[in-house]
Amino acid sequence: MRYRRFPRTGWEVAEIGYGMWGMGGWSGSDDEESLKALDRAIALGCNFFDTAWAYGSGRSERLLGQMVRQHRDTRVYIATKVPPKNMKWPAKAEYSLDETFPPAHVREYTEKSLENLGGATIDLQQLHVWSDTWADDERWQRTAEDLKRQGLVRAFGISLNRWEPWNGITAIKTGAVDCVQVVYNIFDQAPEDDLFPVCREHQVALIARVPFDEGSLTGALTREARWPEGDWRNIYFTPGNLAATLERVERLRKLLPPDMDLPALALRFILQNPDVTTTIPGMRRPPHVDRNLAASDSIPLPRDLYKALREHRWDRTTVIP
After folding, report:
1. Where are the domains of the chain?
2. What is the DSSP annotation of 152-198?
């Protein structure tokens, strides 16, 4: 496992972290298997775990807290998120800060997360949605500083709406943001345009989420894919989006070297960018952990292959959480 510096804090975090949405919010999750996967990740050197209260109303946080207590001698960095008060994803410009992140709400859910995690301090607390219409409201900034001063959190960040990487730049420029979480993968390359340079300038960490485009870039998705009622993937992979996605995945397969699978290609593309602090694939089973973390041990992609992947950028604008 290779590590990258988390700006401002100086933490050395695994360049491939662990995204925990699937353990709390997706159908088919099994807690015992999740715990085995988490244990395996720590054994292989993964030390950055991203969860949220909304992932199963604290279920994912409790699983992580249980695992961290079993590895007390290992430094593990925990990132979680405060859900918006109105419980609506994504954020819309017309929502006010009072509807989403009033100070009392942020504090309440920070305390709930601490209880779920079983710790005294959260390394990185994040707001689970964001709109730059709130950026100049100093209440969220003061709340972040208060939580840090009181030792409840060490760093503060925001999670940007899907396909809106520009909608966070104003917040970054306030100086109150230590970290930004954004969708970034082979298809979703738009964050490089404006967001990445601003984060570089202001020494803000970048978490690349959804590295596999909700599963399409693992190569396991088919036209017959169906999920149980209530599973979020039914909303994302509408028939039109599913068909268009699979066509693009098939074009990507033609670029695969003989010794590389699609998940490795997806992760290595992200890691090729030095602006990325860590990427957080979801991993619910130990074999997924072994496969994904192995990408950190790989050499950079050949220049011609990386250049070819740049041509697979897909700028989408439909609002999906």
Report:
1. 3-218+262-310
2. SEEEEEEEPPTT-TTTTHHHHHTT--SEEEEE-SSS--GGGTTHHHH
3-state secondary structure of 37: helix
pLDDT tens per residue across span 281-301: 999 899 999 999 999 999 999
| CATH tag, 3-218+262-310 | 3.20.20.100
- CB half-sphere exposure, 120, CA atoms < 13 A: 2
Statement: residue 319 has pLDDT above 60: no
Greatest Cα-to-Cα distance within the chain, rounded to the nearest angstrom? 54
Overall pTM > 0.85: yes
Is the pLDDT at 59 greater than 60? The verdict is yes
Cβ burial, residue 255 (10 Å; 0-12/13-18/19+)? middle
pLDDT score recorded for residue 220: 87
Q: Alpha-carbon distance 135 to 160, whole Å? A: 13
Residues near 4 by beta carbon (within 8 Å), at least 6 away in sequence: 12, 13, 15, 276, 277, 278
Give yes or no for a contact between 135 and 174, defined as CB atoms under 8 angstroms apart.
yes
On the 0-12 / 13-18 / 19+ scale of CB atoms within 10 A, 303 is exposed
Strand-pairing partners, residue 68, are none
Token pair 């220049």: residue: 303
Q: Would you call 307 helix, strand, or coil by DSSP?
A: helix
Q: How many CA atoms lie within 13 A of 101 on its CB side?
A: 27
Q: What Cα–Cα distance (Å) separates residue 118 from each residue in 35, 46, 104, 121, 166?
A: 16, 20, 21, 9, 35
So what's the pLDDT on residue 178?
A: 98
**DSSP assignment string, 258-296:** TT--HHHHHHHHHHT-TT--EE--B--SHHHHHHHHGGG
Query: Which ranges in the chain belong to alpha helices (H)?
Result: 21-25, 31-43, 59-70, 97-100, 103-117, 138-149, 169-173, 195-202, 233-236, 239-253, 262-271, 286-293, 303-310
Percent of the chain with pLDDT over 90: 86
Higher-confidence residue of 263 and 242: namely 263
